[in-house]
Every structure is written in structure tokens, then in C-alpha cells.
Design a protein that fits this description.
Strands 3, 4, 6, 7 and 8 form a five-stranded antiparallel β-sheet that branches. Strands 10-16-15-12-13 form a five-stranded mixed β-sheet, with no helix packed on it. The chain is mostly beta strands and 492 residues long. Helices cover 5% and strands 44% of the residues.
Length: 492
Amino acid sequence: MEIRKLRYHQLKIMLFAFVVLVSINLNGQTCSSLSTPINGSVDVDVDSPIRWRAIPNIIGYVVSLGTTPGGGEILNRRSSGQQNFYNPEVGLPADTQIYVTIGYFKAGQDFTTCNIESFRTVAVTEVPECTALASPLDNSANIAAEVELVWDYAPTATGYFLSIGTSEDGNEILNNVDVGNKLSYESPDGLPADTEIFVKVTPYNEIGEAAFCATESFQTTSAVINCGPYFDYRTGTSINLGPEITFPDVVGFCLRTNSTTVVSEDQADGHRWYALEADGSERVISTSIFAEIEGPGMYRYEAFNNITQSTTTVECSNSKIFHVFSSEIPIVETIKESRRNGERRIEVKTKGAGTYEYALNSEDGPYQDSPVFENISNDFQRIFVRDKNGCGIAETSVQRQLSTEDFPKFFTPNGDGVHDYWQYKTPDREGEIVIVSIRIFNRYGNLLFMLDPKIKGWDGTYQGRPLPESDYWYRAIASNGDEIKGHFTLKR
């Protein structure tokens, strides 16, 4: 029995070991390690690729290279996808301890970071070899003037000098400029179009620079500038390199003048103005921001921007046709006043060849298109009529209208010196109405007094006798024909 139990226990141990081994085989190792160069290597070439042992079933690797343990000074958490290698584009620094950190993602697991490993690169004792253009290739043609120059990595190089010219020894575009430790360059203004371009790339390191590097060349094509409008898919916007036109469709030509000056407020590099002739031809009348228009007719206005790409400059323009018609300062014929639902209404009637707008009491407006003003106060009003085409402003006015508010509501003729007389008081303000007569009546309509507006006022008597407290009525007539009726109270 004991032997059987021992064998059963040994069988369980063997089965557990088998499951562990199968699990390791199915899931693969839990982390990776360097395979090229191996951990602890020395004198590693600066252009050596970095390889590590593959891990099954991973989503992707992340690699960092630094000069300190766990650092990313050279390469900081660069994804290499599912490839278990990385080739440093511009090489590794010479005679330097390089620290490598490999990490990876697996489905359903947290990100895993493997142990840091390192190696030391070889000390550089010689200058680098020359390199060559990778794009465009030497002697190629039909190259866009906005091309990016790309060259191959020169092992041990830590930077590159770049010369660009339009002759084999030329450098008028770029004169032996240190572009740093990178493998490409694009001129911010582009290269000359339809020109043979000569390029010389010279690698260098701490020892010195490569000697006798060859000059390569390629032929650019003519620059094509799209003025637009076109849709830019990168920004999601419509692009138009020509200026925006805000000049109006119609302009008035002021009669009784020799010319009318029009001015553009559009932001542009240049402007042109044309008169359209009866035979369909155009005649240039100005090349500045303003033009002198000599009469009514059809004209064309053009604004343009000078767009330069790859030393090629073109005009990107926009234009519009506008109509010039006769206009003039308005003439105010009549001002019609009326009442509607008790509210004062003023209507201005004008004549003239222009298009007019109207404002009350201020030459600066606001202006309205309608010549009718509703719900206007009884005060004196100034009226301004302006030609929309700038030919001038006409001004007129309307007198203040009489109102019951202009007359006292009561008076107390008791000799105390306060409100002893009833009289219309002329306010001290512009446009005041002149009263020519005031008649006072009792409640039965009998005329009691003819009040001269120039005297002190009515003292509440009739034929020398004081009248009793009561309400009395009046009718006032102004010099402009206005008539107002109302009543007031006599108090003793």
C-alpha cells in the first residue's frame, strides 16, 4: 500500500512538471534579451543593428536606447511593431556605453519591461566615408522644386555639411551648412524651378570630415502654383491664394462733378482698374489702390497677390465687375407731419438721381432707408438725408409741435406772488413755437379773455371781477398754424 501511495505521489509531481513545460512552450518565454550585440559586448560597430530574441504572441515591441541605465537619450520608447530588431537611422555614438531597454505588449496583459542590458561601441579613429543621395537620385529629371533631399547614412558620421547650387561648384543656395546629424533637408523656399541643381553632402565626425565627396545633380521641373480655390484635405479648409474682394457692386457718380474717386480697402499686393468699352475691350485707368472714375458705365476692379514658390512668382488674382451710375446730393421737397393713433409722424419727400437714406438729429446717424419716422416726440427735429453713394447730405428741420403739456394745469390768483397768472411760457430751446393768440372760455363756451402771449398772463378776472374756482378752457394758435385745445383749473 505504501509503495502505491509513493508511486501515485511521484506521478502527480511528474504531471505537474509536464503541465509547466507545456505552458512554457505554449506561452513562450516571459521576457527577451539581446541577441545582437549580446549583453556586455565591447567594440560594437556604431552602425550595428539592435536585435533581441522574439517572444511569441506579442502585439508589439517598444525599444529605448540611452547612455544611462533605463535612459532614452538616443531613442525614447520607439515602437518597432512586431519586428524584433531596430536599425539606428543615424548610427550610435562612438566609444559609448549603450543601454537597451526592451518592452512589449501582450493581449490581456499589462505592458512588460525587460531587464536593462548594455554594450559598448567601438572608438572611432577615422573620418567617415562619403555618402550619396537616396532621393532624388543622381542625374534624375522632372523633380519637383519643393523636393526633400535625402541621403544615406555614413557609418561613424555625427553630422553632415550640405552645399546646394546651380553649377557643379556652386553654393549660392546653401553654402556648406552644417545640417546636424540628420539624413534629409528641404529648402524652406523651395529650389529654383526648371533648373539643374547640384548637391554635395559631406559627412563628418569628431575626427574630421570626409574628403573628396562627389557632387551629384538632378533637374527640377517648372513650378506649378495653384492659386485656388481648392480644398486642403490636411486642414479641411478651402484655400484661395488670391485676395478677398470686398469692393461694392455699384458705385454712384456724383453729378456736377468732373470725376469720382473710388478706393479699395482690400488687403492685396497690387490693384488694377479697367473701364469696359462698348466694343468689349478693357482700358486700364489705374494701377493703385484708388481710381478716378470719369463717368457712369461698367468697370472692372482686380486685386492680386504675388505668390512665390521655388523662385517662381505668379500673380493670384480675384476681380469683379461693378456698375457706376449717376447720383447726386438730395433735395428735400417737403416735410409732411401727421398724427396716427395720437403719435406724431414725419414723412420726408426728396428728389434727385441718387439713392438716399434718412436720420434724425445726428448727421452721423443711425440712418434708415425709409423716409418715414413714426412715434416722434413733439420736440424740434433735425432731419438729415444722405446719398448712399457719397455725393452729399442735405439737412432740414421741423418745428416743435404744440402740446397740452406746454400749458399750466392750474393757477392760483390770490396775490401771494406764486402762480398768480396763467400764461404759455416759451421754453428756452431750439425750434420753439411762437404762439400768436390764446382764447380762454368758460364751461359754456363763452369767450372770457383774449390773451396776448407777450403780457404777463390772465389774472382770473372777467370785466374786472374775479371769477370763481372752476375749470376753464383755452384754444392756442401758433405761427405755423398749429392749434391746440385744453383746459386748466382756477383755484382760490
